[in-house]
Specification:
This protein is α+β, with helices and mostly antiparallel strands. It has helices spanning 44-61, 97-103, 132-137, 143-166, 210-213, 219-233; strands spanning 4-7, 11-15, 21-26, 29-32, 37-40, 68-73, 76-80, 83-84, 87-94, 110-120, 129-130, 169-176, 178-181, 184-187, 196-200. A hairpin with a 5-residue loop joins strand 2 and strand 3 (21-26). The longest helix has 24 residues, at 143-166. The relative contact order is 0.16. Bound molecules: uridine-5'-diphosphate.
Amino acid sequence: MEKVLYEGKSKLVCAALDEQNCIIRYKDTATAFDGKKKEELHGKGALNAAISNFIYRYLEDNGVKTHFIKALDETSVLVKRAEIIMVEVIVRNVAAGSFSRKYGVPEGYWLKNAAVEFSLKSDELGDPMINATQITALGIASKAELEELVQTALKINKLLVELFMKAGIKLIDFKLEFGRSGDGIILCDEISPDSCRLWEDGTDKKLDKDRFRQELGGVTEGYADVLRRLKSVG
Ligand code: UDP
């Protein structure tokens, strides 16, 4: 039996033959609102794996260090093992979701600069927002590490805005996770329509997990459209 190191809401992390690596297995489970809304969406795991692998290859080609090694099958990816830094790094180009609600900004408002924010990775506490001095005060990451996270997140944003724009998609916001490895800080987790807001250019049709959160239907069709468009730009 394969050793499961960690089971998340939408992925399993399993031991690999080499202790330096592990295997991520994408599941078809979709969850929202701290897991209160949950459904199996056939094919979602394979779509997210394909989209995330495509993006991580593109980022590696553009000088971003990531955990990605290679795809093993439709839903499994071999990655470098890393010690996850327990904050989520969120980058926003356009107001939406919790940002719109919290600050009273209409969804769709283009921000004057990319906004970077942190959330503590804790399902128990509902991923509360946390600032840089609170993160260093709690010893979650050092000041130098946080500076690197912000600079890397902004670089990733620039690269992804460009990539998605070519694919006819607006990158509204997204969430990143990083880890410490032998190679320094590397991008971990996934970048997929589960962790990004992606709107079709021209129509603002949502192609991401908001289709699931807001019961808009056509969730996997939206994800499949994202993959098709990414592949069309090469
Ligand atoms: N996000 C995520 N996981 C989280 C929280 C947020 O992937 O635990 C993503 C979310 O899909 C969106 C961006 O981060 O693309 C910003 O999310 P927001 O803070 O607006 O929270 P939400 O409205 O998704 O609860």
